Each structure stands twice: as C-alpha cells, then as structure tokens.
Write the structure tokens for this entry.
Amino acid sequence: MATETSSEQTNKDSSDNEYVLEVNDLQTYFVSKWGTVKAVDGISFKLKKGETLGIVGESGSGKSVTVTSLMRLVPSPPGHIVGGEVLLEGQDLLKLSDKEMEKVRGDKLAMILQDPMTALNPVFDIEDQVGEALGIHEGLKGNTLKDTVIDMLKKVRIPAADTRMKDYPHQLSGGMRQRVVGAIGISCNPVVLIADEPTTSLDATIQAQYLNLLNELQEETGVGIIFITHDFGVVAKMCDRVAVMYAGKIVEQADVREIFNNPQHPYTQALIASVPKMEENVDRLYAIPGNPPIPNKPTPCQTCGETSPILVKHSEDHLVAKCGIDTECAGWFPRDLD
C-alpha cells in the first residue's frame, strides 16, 4: 500500500513538472488618449521542455506584446501588465521585483529579437556582446570568458570564431548578425527561449539554415522555444503546437498537424487560405476581407454579435474560441468590413 502511495506521488510530481512555462490569463493594456487598448486580453498557454510553441497572427494581433510581457519589458507608461500569471518552473515572474527579474532575464528566460541590427550595439564588438550575459549570470571572466564566447559562436556556426568575435555588427552579414543574437540567447542555457520573428530579415536560403540551427540547438539543450511568426511555412517546419492570436486573444490552439489538417476557427482558416500554393493557378491571391477590430473598441462577432469569446474544447488538446455562451457559433471573429 505504501509503495502505491509513493508511486502515485512520483507520478503527480512528474505531472506537476511537465511544463517549464505556464501562462494563465495574461492581460497587458496600454493607456492612450483614445482609451485603454487591450493589447493582450486574457491569454493562457503552456510550454513543455524541448517543445516549440508557435504563436501566429497578423500584425497588431498581440504576438510581440505577449512575449515582451513574459520578459517584463513592456514600456511603462503607457503599458501595464494588469493581471495573470507567468510561471517559469513554478515561479511567478509577475511577482518578482525588477532586481529579481534581472537575474532571470537572459539566464533562465532569453529572447532572440527580430532585427539583429537594432538588437546589437554598434559600438561594442561581438566578444563584448556575447560575453555580457555570461559575465553577469555565470560570473565568467578573463580567458575562461573568452573561450566560452568562442564556443558559443562555434555552436551557432560562426566560422573563424576566434577572429570574428573581434568584429563589430556592421562588419557581419545579416545572417551572421542573427547567429550572433542567437548565441547571446543561448549563452546561459535558458529554460525558455523566445524567438520573435528571427528570420524576417533573412533570405530564403539563410532562413532555412537558421531554422535548422535552432532545431539542432534545441535537440542538444532541451530548451523550450516560443516562436513568434506570421509565416505558416516556418510554423510547419519549427513548431510542435500552435496558438493563433487575433485582437489580443488566442482564438485557436492545437497540435501543428491538427491546425493544418483540421482548422476550426474562421480566422485560422482564413490565415491558411492566405498562403499561396505552388500548384494553384489563380488570377488573384486570397486576402482576408476587412480589418481587425480596433483594440480599444469591442467589436461584435460577424456571426452572432457576441463580444466576449471563450475557449472551448473541440477535441483533446484542441481549443477554439466561441462566442460567449453560444458555442454553436462558428467562432468569434469580429471584423471591420467598412
């Protein structure tokens, strides 16, 4: 009997520790002269070790504000995280002081930014910039720090790393700069790595190489990745699960194959339909009609007029936003068609 109890407790502990990141009802608002803008309006998701979660949606849907909220980098004013939980290995990041958060940021939780030219400081060489986090969080210095920087640059496939680390950002190509930003992100072996559209400025060949590199690094380290993108081709290659954002809310969340093969929300269906298909010969590419709702003005659903969606289970691990209590509605989808 005692053995069964111990086994049950072990299973419970394993289940409790399954997720390295849990986001519950996160709300981030911006105050403007036009009113309160609910940029992130009550979203929830989880991330397992070694898993990649894609967050997709058009510009203005709340993707980047979501990840800057996780990093506690929302500019205040005008922005404020007004509610929710961000649990990193069980620790609520929203309850930490600024000093405590500085110890987490860049160590357990790291981020690769979209534009490496603005992410990197033009007046410091690559060695200084990759070594900064290692010096702060790992306490490395001298030759040990230098050797570790070289190892990090080699890990992201920078050739002649011992020479190139003396270069400045403007001396590197766009692909090389993005690799350097990646080296900074993984330098302290984070638990969660956020990649905010890191391939946007890269051409197709370099983009493919960079995505392969991220996959290899994830296999080596087991880091959980949150991948922000609007490119469904990248989603198919990189992600295990997908959360689709629209107007500050998650409207669908499922396994990546389920999202492509069985999309349930009209916005997800419209996004996928917007991707050009090589085998189709059409006169005009599909575009989603109308505009997203203005965040500070609730817009009713086109189908039933409701303004408050709820996530309901379509199947196991597949959630879809429906209109309030009317779960027979096709899915909450307000759109300005004027």
Observations:
- Residues 1-16 have pLDDT under 50 and may be disordered.
- Residues 118-189 form one domain.
- The first strand starts at residue 19 and ends at 32.
- The first helix runs from residue 2 to 16.
